[in-house]
Structure formats: C-alpha cells, structure tokens
User: What shape does this take?
Amino acid sequence: MIWNNGLTGRNEIRVLLLVSVMLSAMILPSIPIHPKLPQIRVEELLLFSIFGLNFILFALRGFRFGEHEKAQLAGQKKVLKIIFWLFGLMTTSYFISNFYGVYILGAGSYGMRDVMELVTYFKYFLILTLVISIDMGQAEFAYMKNAFLAGLTFLILFGWGQHLNILNMNYWLSPYFNQVHWEHLIVGNPARILGTFDNPNYFAVFTVMTLAFLTAWYFFKDHKGKFPVLLFILIGLVIKLEYLTISRTNLFGIALLFTISCIWAFLYHNRNKKVIIKIVALFALTIFLTLTASSDFINRVQEGTDFSTSTSVLGHLAQWETAIGTIWESPILGWGTQKEAMTTRVDNEYALFARRYGLIGMSIYLAFFFVPLSLAIRRVRATVRIYGKAIPFDLPVLLNATYILLLPSILFYLFWAGIFYNLQLMTLFSIIIGLVYNTAKQPAMLREPDIKAVGK
Assistant: This one.
C-alpha cells in the first residue's frame, strides 16, 4: 500500500529500489553508529527515506489514492491483509510482553535498544510490502535475476580473494567489517571466509538461500531437454563457497536441501531418466567437492559430529539450558526484550524469541515463516492438480518451490543461531517471502503455463 504513492508511481522505480536493497544486503557491510545501537545499513537508509518521502507526498494529496492506486490495492488486498495481521500481532505481542516484563515482573528496564526492535519489524514490513507492490512480469524478474547474479559473481570472487588473501586484502579490508569475525581470516585456525557478512555462518546461510533457487531451477525449470551445464557449474561454485566458510550447520542445511529436492524431483518427474541423471550428477558433484576439500574443513566437520567433545555443541547446550530456565519462569508472555538486562546471546532463535515474548509471541514468530509456506504449498498443489506431474514449473511456481525447499534448512539453522535479528540476512529472506506473497496476488503474478506448450 505505502509503495503505491511514489515520485512517479511507475513500476520501474519500485523494481530499481528493490534491486538496490537486494544488492546492498548482499555486498555492503554495516555502518557502525553507536556502541549501544545496532549498526545501520545502506538499504535501511533507502527504505526509510523513500517511505518518508512517499508518506509526505501521500499527505500532500490529502491521504487519497488515485484510480490506478486503488486498482493495484484491490489486487494486493489478500496478501496485504495477511501481512498487516502478522505484523500487527507481532507489535501487540511486543508491547504486552515488554509491559509485563518491565512493570509487572520488574525484571529490568526499557531503553533505546528495545525500541530498535520495532524499527527492525518495520524494516521487514517495508520490504514485504515493497515486493508485493511490484507488478512482476518476465522483464522485471529478469532484471532482478541479472542483478542477483552480478552480486553473486562478486561474492564468489570476493570469497576466493579472502581465502587466498590476494594482495593481502584481509588486512587492509578488515577495518570495514566486523572486527571479531574478520579475525577468522587473519589469525583463525582454520581460516574461514565470511564474504561481506558479519560472520562466516551468516555468509553460509546466504549460500543455502542461493542454492535453494539454483536447485529449484535445476530440477523443475524447462531446459528444453538439455542438461543445464552452466547452472550445474554455478551450483558447484556456491557449494564450494559454503565449504570455505566451514560452517557445519549450513553444511547440514545444504544436505537437507539437496535431499528434499532430489526426492521431490524424482517423484514429481515420475522417475524420469533425465532427472535421475541430474540427481546422480548433483551427488557426484558434492562428493567430489567434499573429497577435494581442505583438511581443515574435514577436521572441523569431524569435531562437530562428536557431541561429547565438541566445544560448539557443548556451548550451545549450556546457553539453551539457561534460556529454558528463564522461559519456564514466564512461559506465556515472556520477559520482553530487556536487552540491557538480559543477554541476547542464546544461539537458538526459538529460545530467544520465546524468552522475550513467551509462547504467544513464539506462535506469531512461527506464523511469520509458515503462513507463506502454506501459500507456496497451495500454489504448487493447484498447479499439479490442473496440469499434472512431470511438466516444468513456470516462474511463479518455481519461486514457491524455492521457498518450500529452503524453509526446512532455515528452520534447522534457527536451532543453532538465527536470522530474524540479522538485518542483512533477513533483508534477503524477506525478499524471498515477498516473492511468494507476490505470486498470491490477484491477478496472479505473470501467467499460468500455456496448456498447448505444456502438451508439447
């Protein structure tokens, strides 16, 4: 809604803004402002500045929509209602839990860091509504795809540059990135690349997100009967990038992603010979990359699989035990944010959210992930019901299939860390969720598959 009142009202402006937000989240580091405040990001400046300008222009028009804007809003009504309900419930839970924790339980105080949580909510709201507001056609998505591939190419080159420390770049770039985690590249044993992200694990989550798109396109897009060689090579490059981060959690995330996608493709394509070749090729690729990985990678993976001695696992369990005890003392409404009084280091986003907002808030948090999943599943099932199995997916269904493939890996990652409170990762994930919502608009995003073309 808020993006339907712009400088020109043209779809191209919104696409350009979305691409700028996406590339900023991919390749630009955060900007520190104050030790007690979250670091600010360029895409946040863009989003909030354009929103403010749009709001002023809307006010100057007497808070009235034109006929074109009304028609757009009519198509977005279904998904906007869902978004408003979700964020309305999250905000309500935020205020109730903070009031309960600070004034009823008297457990801590309320400060500026707690206010920033609302700003975080609003940022994700702006991203979702921005994606929904775009009339996404083939040209618009192609522009987004090409921009993403350009950013991905930069990250692949940048990641290898970090790994090889080309021109001693890890030393002269270090002042611009997270100092603690950048040491992984300089004094780390083993050294772990982190791309432009705050730490290696976050960069690894980005590779899983990317692989979800590439895998969906690999198995379910129409390749005109040919093996998608370039796509296969790109998948290999992204897998290798994850290996260079040496993130064990996201290594399992990739395994989960590939397992689900291979089983789905095998069944959907009716055990077709071509899809079996793709599955075997993907399996062989991952085996080859694993066997040729560094000894540091192998050793760290082996250390993580021994739960009795793994410092990472034991450290997580100790933090979870503390968090569960706090949750048990106020299970329904939680304790509020209280970031000055309670540590934010839990390394389990389910536990962190439950501690802050209780079981009620936790239910809303899960709805944020599962509501778009239900929309995606319904879209894929409806397409299969209409056109049958073994046909290539069109773009809207591919986007929904991507989310279905990705979410299990994200949900697993939330046990060990989290993405909701990482402004960089959640920006990208919000765009993915927004694309799912965009396909649920009326009229539907793009077009359904041509029945005659499918028959061929």
Remarks:
- The chain is about 70% helix and 0% strand.
- Residues 5-9, 446-456 have pLDDT under 50 and may be disordered.
- Residues 141-305 form one domain.
